[in-house]
């Protein structure tokens, strides 16, 4: 006898362009295909992102009215009481806090996703982060995680370990389920696809194409990539593509590119819906982040056999695995990034080897089917635990 379908309300700030949003959209779509009933509750609509994709698969999106946490929480509580899902699954701080408080007292279990190393000391190096505000957010996050959350999901062991330390959560309350991507959606890196993608970008077939994907924020470390490019600017066929939404660092990065005279080498692509095609067009992906959770774009690069140069962070080391799919170098070190980029561009055998290893790692650990299967198992485990607790309490 098959288990009954799950009704899940995903609470997230928006379904705009971002790794967490992407992962939840693909998870929800696959849940529908498996006979489950996901619904989204969001606070903001974004012009770009995954709303259209989600709606195209028949998944409803409820825009929760309000202007800030108190009103969002009240409106979300009414929505949750009306829908009565099996599980409320929250992602990102505002959605975490509102979702946890909205479900309190309803008997509906709450699962919150931990997606980044949010409270590490490196966050204070970001000029847009205020120490007092980060402290306050951490206290609220930790309190509501400990008191009003049934279980937590972490996208990597590194993220789990960081949350256990910073939020004072018991380790047994956190389940690690790695992100997954759909290999059918990503496709394969054929020579024809590479040529077509380059042609659409106006890039010569013989160009050396370096790609970086991520919003233009301090965390993503783009300025170190630009500095690395300046060190290897004598490569006449070099093209560097920066794909990602504008952020707090956008103006500074454009000024850096102009100041170094790299306008003909570095191209700002803005938000893109065709990242898999960009990966197929690229010779390598560079991720110069200062902190990361799981980096979905790295998983996509591995699926497409695109070699990687990235910051040597615990979370990225964990994703790429032993013997990995790329070269990891110290974060914030332009010279090391430059040397690693040149090494891959000039060593075709190394490039092919890294790409092949990446594809192997993807197939073993990061397919969407594997991730969804483990998420469903976690939801059912949380439900079983909740039902047992109710039964014991009522005995």
Features:
about 400 residues, Rossmann fold, 2 domains, seven-stranded parallel sheet, six-stranded parallel sheet, 16 helices, 13 strands
Average residue-wise pLDDT = 93
Considering the protein shown, what is the CATH homologous superfamily of the largest domain?
Glycogen Phosphorylase B
Number of strands: 13
Total discrete domains: 2
Characterise this structure.
With 395 residues, the protein is an alpha/beta fold. The chain folds into 2 domains: 7-180 and 368-394, Rossmann fold, CATH 3.40.50; 184-361, Rossmann fold, CATH 3.40.50. Helix content is 48%, strand content 15%. The chain has 16 helices and 13 strands. The strands form 2 sheets. A 7-stranded parallel sheet has the order 3-2-1-4-5-6-7, sandwiched between helices. Helix 8 (191-201) crosses helix 11 (275-281) and helix 9 (222-231) crosses helix 14 (334-346).
In brief:
This protein is an alpha/beta fold and 395 residues long. The protein has helices at 19-33, 51-56, 69-83, 93-103, 131-148, 157-167, 183-186, 191-201, 222-231, 250-259, 275-281, 296-303, 314-320, 334-346, 348-365, 368-394; strands at residues 7-12, 37-42, 61-63, 87-91, 110-114, 151-154, 174-176, 208-213, 238-243, 266-270, 284-287, 308-311, 326-329.
Topology:
Blueprint: E1 7-12, H1 19-33, E2 37-42, H2 51-56, E3 61-63, H3 69-83, E4 87-91, H4 93-103, E5 110-114, H5 131-148, E6 151-154, H6 157-167, E7 174-176, H7 183-186, H8 191-201, E8 208-213, H9 222-231, E9 238-243, H10 250-259, E10 266-270, H11 275-281, E11 284-287, H12 296-303, E12 308-311, H13 314-320, E13 326-329, H14 334-346, H15 348-365, H16 368-394
Helix pairs in contact: 1-16, 3-4, 4-5, 8-11, 9-14, 12-15
């Amino acid at each position: 006898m098959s288990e009954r379908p799950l009704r899940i309300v995903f609470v997230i700030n928006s379904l705009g362009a971002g790794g967490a949003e992407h992962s939840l959209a693909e998870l929800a779509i696959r849940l529908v295909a498996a006979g489950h009933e996901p619904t989204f509750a969001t606070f903001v609509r974004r012009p770009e992102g995954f709303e259209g994709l989600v709606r195209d698969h028949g998944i409803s999106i409820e825009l929760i009215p309000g202007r800030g946490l108190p009103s969002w929480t009240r409106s979300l509580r009414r929505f949750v009481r009306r829908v009565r899902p099996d599980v409320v699954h929250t992602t990102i701080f505002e959605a975490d806090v509102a979702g946890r408080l909205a479900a309190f007292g309803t008997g509906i279990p709450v699962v919150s996703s931990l997606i980044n190393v949010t409270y590490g000391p490196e966050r204070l190096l970001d000029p847009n982060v205020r120490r007092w505000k980060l402290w306050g957010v951490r206290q609220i996050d930790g309190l509501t995680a400990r008191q009003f959350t049934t279980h937590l999901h972490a996208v990597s062991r590194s993220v789990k370990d960081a949350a256990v330390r910073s939020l004072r959560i018991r380790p047994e309350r956190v389940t690690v389920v790695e992100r997954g991507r759909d290999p059918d959606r990503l496709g394969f890196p054929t020579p024809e696809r590479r040529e077509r993608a380059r042609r659409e970008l106006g890039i010569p077939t013989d160009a050396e194409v370096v790609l970086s994907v991520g919003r233009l924020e301090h965390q993503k470390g783009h300025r170190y990539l630009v500095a690395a490019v300046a060190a290897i600017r004598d490569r006449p066929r070099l093209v560097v593509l920066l794909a990602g939404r504008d952020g707090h660092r956008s103006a500074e990065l454009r000024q850096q590119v102009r100041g170094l005279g790299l306008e003909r080498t570095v191209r700002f692509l803005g938000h893109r819906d065709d990242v898999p095609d960009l990966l197929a067009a690229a010779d390598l992906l560079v991720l110069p982040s200062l902190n990361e959770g799981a980096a979905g774009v790295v998983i996509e690069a591995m699926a497409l056999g695109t070699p990687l140069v990235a910051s040597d962070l615990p979370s990225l080391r964990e994703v790429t695995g032993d013997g990995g799919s790329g070269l990891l170098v110290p974060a914030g070190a332009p010279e090391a990034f430059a040397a690693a980029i040149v090494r891959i561009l000039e060593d075709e055998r190394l490039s092919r080897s890294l790409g092949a290893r990446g594809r192997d790692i993807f197939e073993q650990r990061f397919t969407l089917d594997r991730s969804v299967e483990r998420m469903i198992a976690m939801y059912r485990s949380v439900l079983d635990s909740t039902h047992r607790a109710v039964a014991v309490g009522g005995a």
